[in-house]
Amino acid sequence: MTQEDGELDSLVRKRIRALRVAQGWSLEELATRAHLSQSTLSRIENGQRRLALDQLVTLARALDTTLDQLVETAADDVVISPMIDAAHGLMRWSIKGEPGMSVVRQRMTEPPPDNPARMRAHPGREWLVVLSGTAILMLGHRRFRVETNQAAEFPTMLPHAIGTAGGPCEILGIFDRDARRGHQRDGERERGENCTADGSCT
């Protein structure tokens, strides 16, 4: 066994125990769910028994996870630096496990537009939390006041706009692929750029 194999073996055993403890289960409870003896499970967790593929499959199912997630290695890029758009006060992070998702941090200083024609609608879904200040979310014909530490989630096919209420605010948003592309196209149209259907602009 190589050092890398040994590290993965140890990681899988620790993961099994951690998932069991997170569920609040004793050795006996997980052993029953996985159709193993309590002593077998104890030896698996303690490294005294070889990890067999059929047992890993059974344990993954009992722990409500998948074999791939149980044996995946730690990612090298644990710490991810943001892409910075200083002109628009934006920081954006990608989510490795969900390539279509983005996390965006934005400082806002302007109130939402008074003109309903400036509200945007596009496919997708958004979730946002106000980190500081107070935000105003315009959603269709409704107006929502979102205070610090409050969150909002909404389908972006509803015409929407967001701005501040009486002073700067900072928000953190999570956008799915469609919502992110919709906002990119909206911003680029405002700058007079030509955008194609796939979200690329010139």
Instruction: Give me the strand/helix succession.
Output: HHHHHEEEEEEEEEH
Taking the sheet with the most strands, its summary is:
6 strands, antiparallel
For the biggest β-sheet, the strand order reads: 1-2-3-9-4-7
The share of residues in helices is 25-40%
Radius of gyration: 24 Å
The percentage of residues in β strands lies in: 15-25%
Stretches where pLDDT is under 50 for at least 5 consecutive residues are 189-202
Q: Work out the number of β strands.
A: 9
The residue-averaged pLDDT reads 82
Helix-strand makeup class: alpha+beta
Mass-distribution shape: elongated
In whole angstroms, the N-to-C terminal distance is 53 Å
Q: Helical region count?
A: 6
Structure commentary:
With 202 residues, the protein is α+β, with helices and mostly antiparallel strands. The protein contains six helices and nine strands, in the order H-H-H-H-H-E-E-E-E-E-E-E-E-E-H. The strands form two sheets. Strands 1-2-3-9-4-7 form a six-stranded antiparallel beta sheet. A three-stranded antiparallel beta sheet has the order 6-5-8, with no helix packed on it. Helix 2 (27-33) packs across helix 3.
